[in-house]
Amino acid sequence: MYEFLATLTLVLHFLFIIFVIFGALLFFIKRWVLYFHIPAFIYGAYIEFTQTICPLTYLENYLLTKANLATYSTTFIQNYLYSIIYPINLTKEIQISLGIALLIINGIIYGFIIKRKK
User: Fold this and answer.
1) Distance set, CA 101 to CA 2, 57, 67, 98, 112 (Å)
2) Which of 23, 42, 44, 98 is most exposed, with minimal Cβ within 10 Å?
3) Three-state DSSP string of 50-93
C-alpha cells in the first residue's frame, strides 16, 4: 500500500511539474486556471532558483521508507518519471538554467495571453 501511495505521489509530482511549466496554456480552455497557475509557477521558480526540496519529495521518501524500499520497484516509474523529476548529476547551475527556461517558457505563454486579451 505504501509503495502504491509513493508511486501516486510521484505521478502527482510529475503532473504538478508539467502544470508549472505549461499550465498557462490551459487559459485558452478555461480562464480561471490562471488563479492556480500563477502561484504554482511562482512556487516552481522559487524551488529552482533556491535549490529547495519540494515537500512532495519528502512525502515520497517517507512512503518508500514505510514500504521498506530504497527506491521504486516499477520499471516504468523508475526509468521514466523518476529520472525526469530527479535527474542524475543535477547541479546548482543546471537548476538555475531550468529556472530561467521556466521563466522564458511562461513569459512566452503569458505574452500570447496578454496579446489575445488586447
Assistant:
1) 34, 22, 36, 5, 17
2) 42
3) HCCCCHHHHHHHHHHHHCCCCCCCCHHHHHHHHHHHCCCCCCHH
Angstrom distance (rounded) from CA 44 to CA 36: 12
Q: How far is it, in rounded angstroms, from Cα 107 to Cα 9?
A: 29
* Residue pLDDT, tens place only, 51-104: 888 888 889 889 888 888 776 666 566 666 666 777 777 788 888 888 999 999
pTM value? 0.80
- Here the cell at position 20 is 508549472
C-beta atoms surrounding 50 within 10 Å: 10
Contact call for residues 72 and 82 (beta carbons, < 8 A): yes
Cell of 53: 526540496
Q: What's the farthest any 2 CA atoms get from each other in the chain?
A: 55
